[in-house]
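Structural biology now treats backbone shape like a language. To illustrate, our science desk offers a sequence and the tokens encoding its fold:
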Amino acid sequence: IELRLDDIFLADQVREDIPRILGKGYYGRDWMQMNRNLFSALKLEKFAMFIILILIILVASFNIISTLIMNVIEKEREIAILRAMGATSRGIMTVFVLQGIIIGIIGTILGVAGGVAICYLISNYEIIKLPADVYYLSHLPAKVNPWDVVTVAGAAILISFVSTIYPAYQAARLNPVEPLRYE
């Protein structure tokens, strides 16, 4: 007997209910068991995608670093004035770290929103069709795993924070005398 469910993620529960409902001589296999090799490949692909996402985030962090370094160079005079007025190195460093973290958080929020929206579209509008006779599915199911979202978002924010340290350090150790010498 083959059953098709409206919610494919209930297949595991239905499989467990079959022996209880029909008796001990019956057993069930769900689509995940029948496509074990496919899911092994998908698990490997998921890990590879995680690595690729981290690499993309690292490239984006270089953008944050270069933006902040350019900002430090452009703001040398203002930093020197703040230092001459008594601002501490720690205070200057905090300003640039916060600026980099804000850039990272905004980018992370936009990325998470875009990713969740794409998953919603894929799951609700069956955009990616599959041959049902091969995979027992008519479309590619998409499910947002909150743990994956938190892991990638956390990694993005952490990398953003780390990428702000060097430019912030450069701003903090700026000698206030040089930029103000010819003023």
About this structure: The chain has two domains: 1-34, 41-180. The chain is about 75% helix and 0% strand. The longest helix spans residues 36-74.
